[in-house]
Automatic annotation (TrEMBL):
One of its GO terms (molecular function) is glycosyltransferase activity. Residues 338-347 have a biased composition (Basic residues). The lineage of its organism: Bacteria, Pseudomonadati, Pseudomonadota, Alphaproteobacteria, Hyphomicrobiales. It comes from the Bacteria. It comes from Rhodopseudomonas palustris (strain DX-1). Residues 338-363 are annotated as: Disordered. Pfam families: Glycos_transf_1 (PF00534). CDD domains: GT4_PimA-like. This is Glycosyl transferase group 1. GO terms for biological process: lipopolysaccharide biosynthetic process.
Length: 363
């Protein structure tokens, strides 16, 4: 563990976690009472959290890591419960001003943190001081996941999407572009991996696919609740990985695709562009024609594929460097520095007092 390797005794706390992990993760908010005055607090902010105000009020050296919250507009009208939750989460962004260091998983996420805040809320958050730190540390997990090799050439023209099946992921745009390509390419296939599988949106996607010409619809498959070894197999088989998402903080599936050496096709969305760099063909306006053309180039044009491979190598190296842990350790040092400065100011602001003497007694 990064913190342990650097001499820190780390304690994890969360309100919700898998039952198998509860033995090593302290429950929130009860864990707040166990924090000592000099303990360093690192708070992950990715949704509305009832403990956030209490954490923000702690006098300790504190770091908040903002993981991005998808805006309400992407859910309102199709999933009002989630829309309400993200609205509440976004309303808590101003609390980040009470932390010594603010980190974010991308520069796009840093910009989203302050977007739309009132002047009072944004006053204590300096966008230029937010530390971008991509979550690349876990990408090597794929090395430890064993899976049988795919039969040679069995899916050499597979387009793969991995992500949640929710409206802002733009999956209908990807399907429309794929269908346009598949009308002239009889061997290309599309695999869509994600969930929830029974949502209205997911069912709507499947209904739309069923209405396509059978020769195209039969080449589109949905995969739900699959194991990591099955997902690894799909990454290995894919020829191209694609996403037409309308909002991302940091595109983890894009990172995974780069790890497997796959060319990318993405919508012109800031978080995905920042994640992919020169490893992707960027579709400015994902009409069926534009998306089909980009997918076709990524599949068929050897020069394009070579250029993307070069960009992929550079981008992976840059991301690995950015997420090697140094930024987190430096953020801890900065938080401690600012905390000590507060302590000195607090000490110096206490006015000296003169001992009170009782008047002499008279007999």
């Amino acid at each position: 563990m990064l913190l342990g390797r650097n001499g820190f005794d780390a304690v994890l706390a969360a309100e919700n976690c898998h039952p198998d992990d509860r033995a090593r993760i302290r429950p929130m908010p009860a864990a707040l009472a166990e924090i000592a005055p000099e303990d360093i607090v690192i708070f992950q902010f990715s949704t509305e959290d009832p403990a956030f105000p209490a954490v923000a009020a702690l006098p300790n050296p504190k770091i908040v890591f903002y993981q991005n919250i998808t805006p309400e507009r992407f859910f309102r009208g199709t999933d009002d419960r989630t829309a309400d939750l993200v609205k509440q989460g976004l309303a808590q962004r101003g609390l980040c001003s009470r932390f010594d260091v603010v980190m974010a998983n991308s520069r796009a996420t840093a910009a989203a943190l302050v977007e739309g805040l009132s002047a009072d809320q944004a006053a204590g958050i300096d966008l230029a001081q937010i530390v971008p730190c991509p979550p690349v540390i876990g990408v090597a997990r794929w090395d430890s996941i064993a899976t049988a090799d795919a039969p040679a050439g069995s899916d050499e023209r597979l387009v793969l999407f991995v992500g949640r099946l929710v409206p802002h992921k733009g999956i209908e745009d990807l399907i429309a572009g794929f269908a346009r390509l598949a009308s002239t390419d009889k061997h290309v296939r599309l695999a869509i991996v994600g969930g929830p599988s029974q949502s209205d949106y997911a069912q709507g996607l499947k209904h739309g696919v069923a209405e396509l010409e059978h020769g195209i619809a039969s080449r589109i498959t949905f995969h739900h609740d699959i194991s990591e070894d099955d997902l690894k197999r799909l990454y290995q088989q894919a020829a191209v990985c694609a996403s037409m998402s309308r909002h991302e903080g940091f595109g983890v599936p894009l990172l995974d695709a780069m790890f497997f050496g796959k060319p990318l096709v993405i919508r012109a969305e800031p978080g995905m562009i920042e994640t992919a760099g020169d490893a992707a063909i960027v579709v400015a306006e994902p009409t069926p024609e534009a998306t089909a053309a980009a997918l076709g180039a990524a599949l068929n044009d050897e020069q394009v594929r070579a250029n993307l491979a070069g960009g992929r190598a550079r981008q992976l190296e840059e991301l690995r460097s950015a997420a090697d842990g140094r930024r987190i350790i430096n953020a801890i040092a900065e938080a401690q520095k600012r905390w000590r400065a507060r302590q000195r100011r607090s000490h110096n602001s206490v006015a000296p007092t003169t001992p009170r003497m009782n008047p002499p007694r008279h007999s």
